[in-house]
Design brief:
- By secondary structure, the protein is an all-alpha fold.
- It has 15 helices and 2 strands.
- The protein has a two-stranded antiparallel sheet.
- A hairpin with a 7-residue loop joins β1 (about 60) and β2.
């Protein structure tokens, strides 16, 4: 048997050190260079303003002059502020309207479009319907809010006129001006705005599901609902976690729709923490107190995001454990 020995230029055996020196080095520092612009932008746009806002929250300041240090006074006042807690309760309703309901409806619609419409009417029809559902997401919230304020207007509004035309005039309401209906009206608008996002995400997730799973379930006699429950849901669990976390964060920081539709009224019936912070900061010029509200809201959103990511990681690890 012939053994070939690799030699250097002068006929000597090439050592491991020489081989390592001749091999091209991987530019590990280049990754940092690519990440550097994003890191700097994140620090300048997110971290620095948040720290400045947190610092202002420990002061009594009207936006002009020198701030007066008050320590935790704003936070102690916040804990006893009934309007603040009411705004957070309204945020829970927004979470239902922007996270829970769109996730459930988006799942059913995505499965229906993927399983039924796609098979019977073709992919072009699915694409058109998907775009129609997603359209509210790309509309500016100011434009959508103005249009819905026309629809929900108490006089000559499209919804009241429709109810009158079909003989249900007794159901006409001042949808945005009545404290008993204003919050639910805003919730309905937000469901319409938000439903396209989970639909698109879930349809993208359905495309990676192995079709053989559906075929096997169908051969076993499983109907559409059983296939949806036992095949679709487990397979797109990562997408469900992403949608729930993303939509919950969007619900907690919702501002534009409340500002355009109701401005937190009537009588604070639709006030949410983000709008409460805005009015406290700019209209009442209680800058320190408004900064405290936004700081608490930011911390709550960050904690919920971390919890959601932790649950998603745990679920993925458990799924990997079952596969192995």
């Amino acid at each position: 048997m012939t053994v070939t020995v690799k030699r250097g230029e002068r006929g000597g055996r090439v050592t491991k050190k020489q081989q390592h020196a001749k091999s091209p080095r991987r530019p590990r520092d280049s990754y940092t260079l690519f990440l550097l612009p994003g890191i700097l932008a994140f620090i300048a746009i997110i971290i620095v303003p948040f720290l400045m806002n947190t610092g202002v929250s420990f002061t009594d300041w009207q936006g002009v002059g020198a701030p007066k240090w008050t320590g935790l006074a704003n936070y102690r006042e916040l804990m006893d502020d009934s309007e603040f807690w009411a705004s957070f309760r309204h945020s829970l309703f927004m979470v239902v309207a922007m996270a829970a309901v769109p996730t459930v409806v988006g799942l059913v619609l995505a499965a229906a479009l993927f399983d039924f419409v796609g098979k019977h009417f073709g992919t072009k029809t699915v694409a058109v319907l998907r775009a129609c559902f997603y359209l509210p997401q790309v509309l500016p919230i100011a434009v959508a809010g103005i249009v819905w304020s026309w629809i929900l207007a108490p006089e000559n509004g499209s919804l009241n006129e429709l109810l009158k035309a079909i003989g249900l005039g007794s159901l006409q309401q001042d949808w945005l001006g009545d404290p008993d209906f204003a919050l639910y009206s805003v919730m309905g608008v937000m469901v319409w705005v938000q439903i396209g996002f989970p639909l698109v995400i879930f349809m993208a997730g359905l495309q990676r599901v192995d079709p053989q799973l559906y075929e096997a379930a169908e051969l076993d006699g499983a109907g559409w609902w059983r296939r949806f429950w036992h095949v679709t849901l487990p397979q797109i669990r990562p997408e469900i976690y992403v949608v729930l976390v993303w939509c919950t964060i969007a619900a907690l920081k919702v501002f534009g729709a409340v500002y355009v539709l109701t401005k937190g009224g009537p009588g604070g019936a639709t006030n949410v923490p983000s709008y409460f912070s805005f009015t406290t900061f700019f209209e009442k010029t209680q800058v320190g107190y408004g900064a405290a509200i936004s700081t608490v809201l930011t911390v709550v959103i960050l904690v919920l995001a971390l919890i959601g990511l932790k649950l998603q990681t745990r679920a993925e690890d458990a799924e990997e454990g079952l596969r192995t």
